[in-house]
Amino acid sequence: MNIGIILGSTRDGRVSPQVGEWVKEVADERGDANYEVVDLLEYQLPFLGTTDGTEPGIAAWNEKIDSLDGFVFIVQEYNHSYTGVLKNAIDHLRDAWHDKAAGIVSYGSTGGARAAEHLRGVLGELKIADVRVHPTLSLFTDFENFTTFKPAELHLTNVNEMLDQVNAWSNALKPLRIKEETVVEL
């Protein structure tokens, strides 16, 4: 299984790379899948609808998402929702998301719970099975000076349980992805 850990922010001073690398370190210790950090900043996606859609970043983004069996979204809360750049990246694609599983690791003043709930509705529309276990990180207790990520030990259990579920669902959904690929090829 190939699982992408998608960083949901591109702004200067973001802490999502710290959270994403931590999740990857925890995941890599498991040895049950291939995990990689997928940074939206690397794709330079234009704002949806402002171009003709032929920019190389869009094709590379589609190829990356299509190559993955599941996802862990690193989601930060902005104004009771998730970032515009993540919404834009999600909306650039459709079929590449289908019949895959996703976990969410969120952070914010209330653990990013509202951002995760908004994201869940969008994931359902894209035929992504979001898993139940949802690690929530507090800016007040898991980040020193709101900038240096220092997760509480208790989050390790939640991250591992979330990864168990993402892997199980990604594996269970694989026959659907193979079936769709076969149908397209006919």
- Which secondary-structure class do the elements indicate? alpha/beta
Categorize the overall geometry: globular
From the 3D structure, determine the CATH topology: Rossmann fold
Order of helices and strands: EHEHEHEHEEEEH
Separation of termini? 25 Å
CATH homology superfamily name: Flavodoxin domain
Helix content: 40-55%
The CATH architecture designation is: 3-Layer(aba) Sandwich
Task: Point out poorly predicted stretches.
Answer: none
Question: How can the largest sheet be summarized?
Answer: 6 strands, parallel
How many distinct folded domains? 1
Quick one: how many beta strands?
Answer: 8
The tally of helices reads 5
Rounded mean pLDDT is 93
- What is the CATH top level name? Alpha Beta
How big a fraction of the residues is strand? 15-25%
The radius of gyration computed from the alpha-carbon positions, rounded to a whole number of angstroms, is 16 Å
Explain this structure.
The structure is a single chain. The protein has 186 residues and is α/β, with parallel strands linked by helices. It has a single domain (2-185), classed as Flavodoxin domain (Rossmann fold). Helices cover 42% and strands 20% of the residues. It is built from 5 helices and 8 strands; from the N terminus they run βαβαβαβαββββα. The protein has helices spanning 16-30, 56-66, 84-91, 113-125, 155-185; strands at residues 2-7, 34-39, 70-76, 100-108, 128-130, 136-138, 143-144, 148-149. Strands 1, 2, 3, 4, 5 and 6 form a 6-stranded parallel β-sheet that branches. It has a two-stranded antiparallel ribbon with strand order 7-8. The longest helix has 31 residues, at 155-185. It starts with a strand and ends with a helix.
